[in-house]
Amino acid sequence: MSDIPPDLDWVRAAPEDATGPGPWIELAFGEGNGEDDPEAPVYIRETSAPENVVTTNRRKWDAFVLGVQAGEFDHFVEGVEGFEPTAKPE
């Protein structure tokens, strides 16, 4: 974990009205070569195990977010209480 910058600004990915310690996913965006650097690091961890950090890059993170928004991963949560499928464009 020595290659993880110690001064990252971690953001908790949880609903605004969420209370308690979670566990929640937290994200931190590292510095790259400019504001729009697709290879800039993105760090992901869970609040219950902050010492375990997964690293990807901005390009892959953006592709993942677009996939979630498009419903590409909805099949992973089918049958989970409260799940509503992403509306597909017609």
Automatic annotation (TrEMBL):
Annotated stretches, region: Disordered: 1-22
Protein's recorded name: DUF397 domain-containing protein
